[in-house]
């Protein structure tokens, strides 16, 4: 049994005209947890403490969206199309049911899947995300561009600004997170292309302009998590999601931003395992 994401080989599967790149680890029994990733992310952008922590008890599957990293095809510019791709991938693996863990853009994708394919999802974990039409989501493109410039000017990774607060705790957590992303040394994924990144930004912008969706039909258990000071997808969206979902619980981490589940990875994994169990 593979227990570390750093050791998991990159596999491929063909479905819907796309060759999807993916990795899996953990026990091969029970309902698997499919990870849905964030803006600009490839397989190597998942925090190994989160992936490995969940994989200690559950089969975990991470994958590249269409046109991203080692997956082929053209990246869609709507969240709905990305959700359809994720369903295609999940079904291609022969899965009848899965738990979903969606972070940021992945949390948006997870919401659509839970609404369109409710029989496919058992439990849902959504972090650092917001509902369609959520407050401030339309500003993700502007914030991403500004923080990318800040990072270039200070020779830092944009995620240090986008994911973490500028307090001493946030700066330290960001450096530790970025170091963990480098733990995998061999067979690393390809970075996202600028074209695919642009398509994802357009998809998130459109999501932010949509009319608020009726989430009352998502009747499965949902864990909503975020930092209390998220700049990318304002934390009020997490509170809104927890209020509008019929069976949801909310966790907000103190002195944490968009990457709160990475800064508080030990606490998040403990709660996620209890929730999934």
Description of the molecule:
It is a single chain. This protein has ten helices and eight strands. With 277 residues, it is α/β, with parallel strands linked by helices. It has a single domain, classed as Rossmann fold (3-Layer(aba) Sandwich), CATH 3.40.50. Strands 1-2-4-3-5-6-7-8 form an eight-stranded mixed sheet, sandwiched between helices. Strand 3, helix 1 and strand 4 form a beta-alpha-beta unit. The longest helix is centred in the last third of the chain and has 16 residues. The chain starts with 10 loop residues before the first strand and ends with a helix. The mean pLDDT is 97. Pfam families: Abhydrolase_1. This is Alpha/beta hydrolase. InterPro entries: AB_hydrolase (IPR050471), AB_hydrolase_1 (IPR000073), AB_hydrolase_fold (IPR029058).
Largest sheet: 8 strands, mixed
CATH architecture: 3-Layer(aba) Sandwich
Radius of gyration: 17 Å
Annotated CATH homologous superfamily: Alpha/Beta hydrolase fold, catalytic domain
Termini separation: 20 Å
Number of helices: 10
Strand content: 15-25%
Order of helices and strands: EEEHEHEHEHHHHEHEHH
Helix/strand/pairing class, anyone? alpha/beta
**What are the low-pLDDT stretches, counting only 5+ consecutive residues below 50?**
none
Task: Assign the CATH topology.
Answer: Rossmann fold
* Shape label: globular
Oligomer: single chain
- Helix percent reads 25-40%
């Amino acid at each position: 049994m593979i227990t570390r994401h750093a050791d998991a080989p990159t596999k491929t599967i063909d479905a819907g005209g796309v060759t999807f790149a993916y990795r899996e680890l953990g026990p091969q029994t029970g309902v698997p947890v499919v990870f849905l990733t964030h803006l600009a992310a490839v397989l190597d952008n998942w925090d190994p403490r989160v992936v490995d922590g969940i994989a200690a008890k559950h089969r975990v599957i991470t994958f590249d969206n269409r046109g991203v990293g080692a997956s082929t095809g053209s990246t869609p510019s709507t969240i709905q199309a990305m959700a359809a791709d994720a369903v295609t991938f999940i079904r291609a693996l022969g899965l009848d049911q899965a738990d979903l863990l969606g972070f940021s853009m992945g949390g948006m994708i997870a919401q659509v899947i839970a609404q369109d394919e409710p029989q496919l999802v058992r439990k849902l974990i959504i972090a650092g995300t917001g509902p369609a039409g959520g407050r401030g989501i339309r500003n993700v493109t502007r914030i991403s561009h500004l923080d990318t410039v800040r990072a270039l000017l200070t020779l830092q990774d944009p995620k240090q600004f986008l994911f973490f607060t500028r307090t001493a705790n946030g700066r330290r957590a960001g450096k530790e997170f970025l170091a963990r992303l480098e733990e995998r040394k061999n067979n690393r994924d390809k970075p996202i292309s600028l074209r695919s990144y642009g398509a994802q930004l357009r998809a998130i912008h459109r999501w932010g302009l949509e009319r608020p969706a009726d989430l009352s039909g998502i009747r499965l258990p949902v864990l909503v998590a975020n930092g209390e000071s998220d700049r990318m997808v304002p934390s009020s969206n997490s509170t809104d999601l927890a209020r509008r979902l019929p069976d949801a619980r909310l966790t907000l981490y103190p002195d944490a931003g968009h990457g709160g589940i990475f800064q508080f990875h030990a606490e998040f994994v403990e709660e996620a395992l209890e929730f999934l169990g």
